[in-house]
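Narrative of activities, Objective 1.

The group set out to show that a structural description can be obtained from nothing but a protein's sequence at a throughput compatible with the screening campaign. Below is one input-output pair from the validation batch, recorded exactly as produced.
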Amino acid sequence: MTWNNGNIKPSLLLNATFEPIGVISWRKAIILTFLGKAEVISAYHQAIHSISQTIKLPAVLRLTRYVKYRRQDVKFTRRNIYIRDKYRCQYCGKVFEPKDLTYDHVIPRSRGGKTTWSNVVTCCHTCNLKKGDRTPKDAGMTLLNQPREPRWHPMIHFSLDAQQIPDPWLDYLIWHPAYNPPETSFGIDND
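Output recorded for this entry:
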């Protein structure tokens, strides 16, 4: 699947209730459409051509029947910690690029702290050195937010800056108005 650099973009798949449930390849989108399992809500300007037909690539599809699905837990990764905390150091409050961040155990591992969503926060290198092997209280620091496991939609298993999201998708994705991603592109997972 190629995103912004190539001609072929993926499709956003909506449940019958217009709730986003996944991102699928253009091929899968066309198959679902031809089988009558989905309807095209919005299409890209790009098209594929056969001998007798031209088909615009689906940008957003809606399933014709409601599909029950199980929400998946968000994978615990460094990248997802940064996304949860909006690339903001949870001690000084400044926003950084990923290369300038690390993560910190609120209760240090040496004091029994676990590497879990509820004990790990995004931290800049300066604050991480200042806090060291102490609790925030012992270091005279306060957390901006208590860490917790995120409850993102299962389709968000990759990160996208607002500039990378295809325009036809914007009406169907929910964005928190306080979230302004850093003015940089961190890439997309093409799994």
